[in-house]
Amino acid sequence: MNIFIDNKSGxxxxxxxxxxxxxxxxxxxxxxxxxxxxxxxxxKDLRISVITTKxxxxxxxxxxxxxxxxxxGCFVAPKxxxxxxxxxxxxxxxxxxxxxxxxxxxxLTREDLIEMLSCIMEDGN
Length: 125
Fold this sequence. Notes:
By secondary structure, the protein is mainly alpha-helical. Helix content is 61%, strand content 6%.
């Protein structure tokens, strides 16, 4: 598992850890039931506070991406297809909001956007 902390980023360190682990789980780089580094070891490797690492793991567990077994550690949870679908739908909605804002600056209509999307989807098939 590779985690890179960008100290110049405005993103909190726990969020950087959370996002990177989550992305690796979604992509399959981290396999189902694979053990994650212990909170202490990850904190030591990244030279950050244990509290920061724990917060990232807690968020991942709360969202169902990892699970904890007492005295054994944290593991990648089995992929919840519905959870992954919801995550992707959320991303699509974010992109569509950005597209809508950009389209408004270009005075594009709803029909223009639908036509553009139809062309893109046809080319993709």
